[in-house]
Design brief:
The chain is globular and about 50 Å long. By secondary structure, it is an all-beta fold. Strands 4, 5, 6, 7 and 8 form a 5-stranded antiparallel beta sheet that branches. A 5-stranded antiparallel beta sheet has the order 9-10-11-15-14, with no helix packed on it. A 3-stranded antiparallel beta sheet has the order 1-2-3, with no helix packed on it. It has one domain (33-198). The protein has 1 helix and 15 strands.
């Protein structure tokens, strides 16, 4: 499996794509777009992980939330992003609907990873077990444009097994009732702040 983003020409939005091979890379399947929105904004820096049971987990930085602050936002004016996620349980043939993982939107210029002036970049952190997906991301919620601050947040999505069921594009999954955000049979468990990083702004 290879996951990446489309090229970014000036003013053209990037999207998240995946392509798979079943013969060690000799031949490849079709390119599949993973972000399911039609927003004219960027989606980039995907991270991918495969669980022991074969579930494929992909998360990325997504600017669709920027439209909630400015309905005319474009790749040149977008500011606010979230971590989004999708998964497949059939080898990448079908995918669940996109799920928002971060609990609030971040201003890209209040941190460093996607800051217009710093742009440290880097994929979302994703790791998988059979019943849990683990996420980490750089988070700028405690920073300002004048004094950027970046924290690292961590959360998990648990695939539950109860009698209630929910159907998504990826198939039918058990829908849990634990406290958290429930989406397509996945329970998002409360996030944990794990690391903080601060850098000095460059001298004027």
């Amino acid at each position: 499996m290879v996951v990446g983003q489309s090229g970014n020409q000036s003013g053209t939005p990037t999207n998240i794509f995946l392509k798979g091979s079943t013969d060690g890379g000799k031949t490849w399947g079709k390119l599949v777009q993973l972000n399911d929105d039609k927003a004219n904004v960027d989606h980039y820096y995907p991270g991918i992980s495969v669980a022991p049971n074969g579930r494929i987990d992909v998360a990325w930085i997504d600017f669709r939330s920027s439209l909630g602050f400015d309905s005319t936002a474009t790749p040149k004016t977008e500011k606010f992003w979230d971590l989004y996620y999708t998964y497949s349980t059939d080898g990448g043939k079908t995918w669940s609907r996109n799920m928002r993982i971060s609990d609030r939107s971040m201003n890209k210029n209040e941190g460093y990873t996607v800051n217009d002036n710093y742009g440290m970049m880097g994929p979302a952190g994703v790791a998988s077990t059979d019943d849990t997906t683990y996420f980490s991301w750089s988070d700028s919620r405690r920073g300002t444009v004048q004094s950027p601050v970046e924290d690292y947040y961590f959360t998990t999505a648990r695939f539950t097994t109860t009698t209630s069921k929910s159907t998504s594009r990826g198939g039918t999954f058990a829908a849990g009732t634990a406290t958290g955000v429930l989406a397509a049979g996945v329970v998002l468990v409360a996030g944990l702040l794990i690391v903080r990083r601060r850098r000095q702004a460059p001298a004027a």
